[in-house]
Structure formats: C-alpha cells, structure tokens
Design brief:
Elements: E1 2-7, E2 20-23, E3 27-29, H1 35-41, E4 51-53, H2 59-62, H3 65-74, E5 80-84, H4 88-100, H5 102-108, E6 114-118, E7 122-125, E8 128-135, E9 142-149, E10 152-156, H6 164-170, E11 175-179, H7 192-201, E12 206-210, E13 225-228
Parallel strand pairs: 3-4, 4-5, 5-6, 10-11, 11-12
Antiparallel strand pairs: 1-2, 1-13, 2-3, 7-8, 8-9, 9-10
Helix pairs in contact: 4-5
The structure holds zinc ion (2 copies).
Residues 10-11, 58, 60-61, 159, 211 line the site of one zinc ion (ZN).
C-alpha cells in the first residue's frame, strides 16, 4: 500500500496544508490540499483516481476538489465515484456551481462522469470494499472508513472526537490514518493525549496521525510524505 499525504493540517493550520491522502494512486481520501500540484509532486496521475471518499463537508476537507474536478472535465474524462455522507450529491454539485458559475451548467456538467454514492455500512467504490462508521464531530458527525486494500484494512477517520466509534473504526486495522489536532482541549477533535491512548489500546495497528494544527507529535505524518506500508 502506498500512501501519499498531500496535506496533513487542521482547518486553519498556519504550517500545514489542509488534508488529503492518496492510496495506491487510485483512491483519494478527502480533498483539502492543493490536489493537482501536490499529486504532480508525488508522481500521481489525477486521471487515475477512481474513487473519492469524503468524511464530511467541512471546507478543509473539500475545497481542494473544484480544480481536480475541472481536470476530470477537460483533461482526463475517466469516470469517478464519490462516496460521502447523506446529502453528498447536492453538496458537491453546489460546490461545483459556486466554483465555476454558469459555465458549470453550460459547458462542464455533462462532461463530468461522476457517480455519487452515499456511504453505506458496507459498500464498494472504485473496486474497493469498504465499511463506513459514523464518528462524532461537531453537529454533522463524520463518516470514517475501513477500506480493504490488497488484503489489508486501512482505517481513515477524517475529523473525530476520541469516542467509542473511533475505537470501532481502528479495531483490527493494519493501518490507521487518524486525526490528532493538538495538545489539550481541542473542541470536536482528538487531542494528542487521546491519540497516544488510542494507539496504546490498539498496539497491532500502525497509526499515522494527521490533521495537526501546529507542531508535531509522535507518529505524525508530514505534507508530501509518501509512505509504503
Ligand atoms: Zn478538518
Ligand atoms: Zn471538520
């Protein structure tokens, strides 16, 4: 499994780009980073992404997507599947319309070969089987994913508090990409102390922490880091 971290920062991190991860050049997990230039720097073909998994609709997880979508409209029109929480299609279509105005409807919409799939408890997207688990994050919550990648289980949290569903998400996973926003009291997110405790409860899982606001913590990944697992 090849994991490319296009961004590893929290929403208003002064040091890191907003979050996005590419798995094996085929799956995109959230889309906050400057996707096209960062894919380019990591040797990833943006036309080869088959599925995008969105945990929730906050801007730091979605606002890198409009240029990526335009690439799929004008440069490489291969079909793509978006997986995300309830309301996915309407939220995404309004983001494309806000980004590109009337031109979206007039010249782009018909050329975008997208399938929107609201996350199911068990589903398949881009040929990958996944399990979705609802996590606690603000008023909307967040959809965490357990994705089967080449015989391994990859758990991906997006934003979450350190509550029981997060333990369920990472339980038995080979690799877990989990947020760890900062030390102390971080409202609606996981603290570094809770991240350390989570890792101690699941010693067989390899943890990679992202969504950092400032500084770093043991197990954290960096912007543009590529990890082979
Ligand atoms: Zn976030
Ligand atoms: Zn959020």
């Amino acid at each position: 499994m090849r994991l490319a971290f296009l961004g590893t920062g929290a929403a208003f991190s002064p040091e890191r780009y907003n979050g996005a991860v590419v798995v094996d050049g085929r799956l995109l997990l959230d889309g906050g980073a400057p996707l096209l230039p960062h894919m380019h720097r990591c040797g990833i073909d943006p036309g080869a992404i088959e599925a995008v998994f969105l945990t929730h609709f906050h801007g730091d997880h979605t606002l890198g997507l409009p240029p990526f979508v335009l690439h799929r409209v004008f440069v490489d029109p291969r079909p793509i599947t978006f997986v995300g929480p309830e309301g996915l299609a309407a939220r995404m279509e309004s983001l494309w319309a806000v980004s590109w105005g009337h031109d979206w409807e007039l010249a782009m919409r018909d050329r975008f070969k997208v399938t929107y799939q609201e996350a199911k408890p068990l589903g398949t997207a881009g040929g990958y089987k996944y399990e979705a688990i609802k996590l606690d994050h603000g008023t909307s919550g967040s959809s965490g994913y357990r994705i089967k990648v080449g015989g391994k289980i990859l758990a991906y949290s997006g934003d979450t508090e350190a509550t029981a569903p997060l333990d369920q998400l990472v339980d038995g996973a080979d690799v877990a990409i989990v947020e760890a926003t900062g030390p102390g009291d971080v409202f609606s997110h996981m603290s570094w102390e809770a991240a350390k405790d989570l890792r101690a409860r699941h010693p067989k899982t390899r943890f990679m922490f992202n969504h950092l606001y400032s500084g770093t913590v043991e197990g954290a990944v960096s912007d543009l880091e590529v990890v082979e697992v």
